[in-house]
Amino acid sequence: RFTATATATTSFFEDDSPIWEKEGRSDWPYRVKIKPDIVLDEAQQIDANLLAPRLDYVRRWPPENWYMAFQGNLHLLPKSDFALIEEEMKKLKFGPDYKSQLVVQPPQASRRKKAGSKRRHRRADGPPGTSAPRTGAAAPAPPREEGPPQQASQSAP
């Protein structure tokens, strides 16, 4: 469930004082102070199943495992995803009189680069199976003419 948004108001700091009753080894010594922005009542909380398919961040996971995107530590969402979540929260919090301020961005390509792709490209001037030079790679130097070595500086007559 999406329940609230908040803004960090300090840099991180260390504090060993308990936050809540300890469960196992969870100490949480690294903290930041926060200011709540939008806090939904329990009845207003947004079921993540409804918003997840619209989030770019979640597309890193297979659709059936989208929930794994939010497990574990703190996750940094793209601005567009955060804006979408916060706008939906504002609609619920402020009711039908709320005017959305979300600027609609063109959809991102949902195609992901496959890890470990072994695709080979053929160079136009090389034999099949050779890789094409990468962008920004240095081109081979042209052949030098044979002759006496050139000096880097000239002396005055």
Concise structural overview:
The chain is mostly loops and 157 residues long.
Can you describe what's shown?
There is one protein chain. This protein has a domain at 4-15 and 31-97. The chain has 157 residues and is low in regular secondary structure. The radius of gyration is 28 Å and the shape is globular. The chain has a two-stranded antiparallel sheet. It is 13% helix and 10% strand. The model is unreliable at 131-143 and 149-157 (pLDDT under 50).
Number of helices: 2
Looking across the biggest beta sheet, what order are the strands in? 1-4
Return the structural class.
little secondary structure
Strand composition percent = 5-15%
Q: Quick check: average pLDDT?
A: 75
Distance between the termini: 84 Å
Beta strands, count: 4
Low-confidence stretches: 131-143, 149-157
Helix percent reads 10-25%
Largest sheet: 2 strands, antiparallel
Q: Work out the radius of gyration.
A: 28 Å
Q: Could you state the order of secondary-structure elements as H and E?
A: EEEEHH
Overall form: globular
Topology, pairings included?
Blueprint: E1 4-8, E2 13-14, E3 30-31, E4 34-39, H1 48-51, H2 79-94
Antiparallel strand pairs: 1-4, 2-3
